[in-house]
Amino acid sequence: MNKPSFVEGFLPQGEANAVSTAELVAVTGYRSARELQKEIERERAAGALILSRSGDGGGYFMPSEGEAGKREIAVYVQTLRARAVNTLRTLKTARAALAELDGQEEIEVI
Hints:
Blueprint: H1 21-28, H2 33-45, E1 51-53, E2 59-61, H3 66-101
Antiparallel strand pairs: 1-2
């Protein structure tokens, strides 16, 4: 197993133990939530499996062991998928508006 990345080393296992952004900023020493999120983004791109949930009790965590972890990862994947679909819909609308302003026909790209 690889050495944990910086933020990953502060995270507990399991969704029930998720650490809020504010708590992570405080313990990691980052100056802002945005700075922390950029580091998490970098670590994820490097292969760290840092999960998150939003809403009440939201935060960051590492997956649990076994079946519980498998469920946590599946929920996270579904959340990312839904965000991606919504982003693509928004992109389609914006591209259509841009094409209309340019007097061009809409090009379907998805």
